[in-house]
Amino acid sequence: MSEADTRETPVEVREIAWHSREFPEAAKDLLEQTQMRRNVRHATNVIQNKRNKVAGELPDWEELREAGSEVRAHVLRHLDYYLTEFEKNCTAAGGHVHWASDAAEANRIILGLIQKHQAKEVIKIKTMTSEEIGLNANLAHHGIRATETDLAELIIQMGKDRPSHFVVPALHKNRQQIRAMFQREMNLPELGTEPVDLATAARNYLREKFLKVKVAVSGANFLIADTGGVCLVESEGNGRMCLTLPDVLISIVGIEKVIPSFRDLEILLQTLPRSATGERMNPYNSTWCGVHAGDGPKEFHVVLLDNGRSPILADDEASQTLKCIRCAACLNVCPVYHQTGGHAYESVYAGPIGAILTPQLQTMEKGRSLPYASSLCGACYEVCPVKINIPEVLIHLRGKVVRQDQATLGGKLSLWNIGMQSAAFLFSDAQRLEMAERVGRVGQKVFVSKNGFIESLPLMLSGWTQTRDLKAMPEQSFREWWAKEKAPKQGKGSHA
Amino acid sequence: MRVSLFITCYNDALFPETGKAVVKVLERLGHAIEFRPEQTCCGQMHWNTGYLREAVPIIRHFVKVYQDAETVVVPSSSCVAMMRDHYLKAAEMDGDAKLAADVEALLPRIYEFSEFLVRKLGIEDVGAVYPHRVTYHASCHSMRSLHLGDIPIRLLKQVRGLSLEPVQDVQECCGFGGTFAIKNADVSSAMLADKVRNVLNTGAEVCTAVDNSCLMHIYGSLHRQRTFVKTAHLAEILASSGDEAAATSGAGA
Hints:
The complex is a heterodimer of chains A (about 500) and B (about 250). In chain A, about 50% of the residues lie in helices and about 10% in strands.
């Protein structure tokens, strides 16, 4: 038995947002981590190229995106119906369905089920919902050890690290870093650097768990309403082990993950693997329905997790956020994510989808800087397999942040608010704007260098000049030129 | 055709040469240009920064100024994207059905400059001469909102003397993003560093685009580093007859 086997999982209570820091501040630190940035850039490039290739080979890719979008939007409009359908059919097949309104309730339910079976250890398939509710830390607190069986999650767990990507959670680590950690944590000083060496080490470590541990915890990709079935896709086969070997299986799933029928997988199982890992199909696709004597777990539980999702449904502008099928294609294509990696978001859900999901799950109390962590370039929307218009939702959430700020005295008197209010006043009338341009031309002289460029600006505008020069405003605006040169020749100088 | 020019607020104040170039090209093609001095701004900066309510009067003003225009041409893809992607939503948010109807009536008559030349007029060769090595920066809005595709490239390929140098990672944002460049100055600068490195690797003397906002950003770094690589709005290249003294007169010179 290796040393790592008896090591206690550290107790650490997590939230969706770990923030103590705002995105720009956290990003500043991450930008300094050159090795991490290189790992992220390399990994996202590889996945993105694969994704572009396999998405491009489908002649009806755009139609599939549209169809996927419609299925998911339809479900969200009738979520109450499909969830109760799922509950009815899952129960009829021998499953048990539990409803958890928040993270605390989900933790209580899962803990209760594990304790009922007097289990001291559980094995897990990679699940973001368990990350969202801080399951591992809570189990550890009650003396139950949770072992991640997905290779990347195992790497994160062993390294006491946090996922930086919700499909490939350890993409910020490279092979050498992982080898060093395995050598240390698994007590394998002779371990090689080849992928097969690392995979073998993990396999040996995990095989023992699969055969011994009696309770498994999973997430799910889809809940199938018309059959009561659950669908989970994965690449390593660890999931298949967890789904079939233990006596008890507990799946914790966000309420939005339901789809109407088995047929709908025809669409989503084409778009999800292509978008997520650039594969035509996942190596392991499991769907199961309740329990069957002599085949698989004897007891099966689904915990339906709300945890802030219902209020999102009520927001017409933002409810499309819940269409997400967690492929992470938006992370792989995002130029901001490329620079910072996932940890800068200080959230379970990183990247563009995290920037809209986290603040909503947190009722905008935390993560207020996240909607601004985007240049609105639109690359995320372009690749999203269910067509979530992420830039549109980002702007909507920025609107909420601004409203919240304006409700406080400090916010009202902030430089941003005063600046934007003044600009709005000037932009609503051409004479005011023209006057402002004239004032600007005189006012800028304090800042203009001899070479005709502004190289340093004060306050918030210093963000621009820290790396960029700005050409001074020319002496004559276009409108002044027109009034002088063109308008006289046209008679009136304006339209009729 | 009577073409009404919406110069946009930042072109008006910072890049008047771009406006003059648009006028020159369109007049050369035989169109009458009008400039409505009541014009101000499209409202994009407020909208994208989350000042949604504050953007509505600006949008309403724009629609009022142009609602009887035959055709509106705009030398900025992000401003046109603002109109197409958000104006209707803004009107609905404000509960102004009249504004929404006016927006719907006006939008089909609004064109980005290069889009107007190729899609509306069906012209790719505007008779320009520009003997320089040029690389084209595809702005995010021109690609993903307006779906201009290769329209600007087709126009550039017809320019006499111009050699076009493709830039690596053309689809990647330059990091401007309006107030993003200030609010997330470090990330924005890191994105810009990648973009500028790719621009410099082309060996081009001039970087062009259909948006002066991106060019202002890219040139901000090119100038800070004293690379002596210039930027020029596409309209300025298309207006050029080859006998100009300087390579550019707009964003970068």
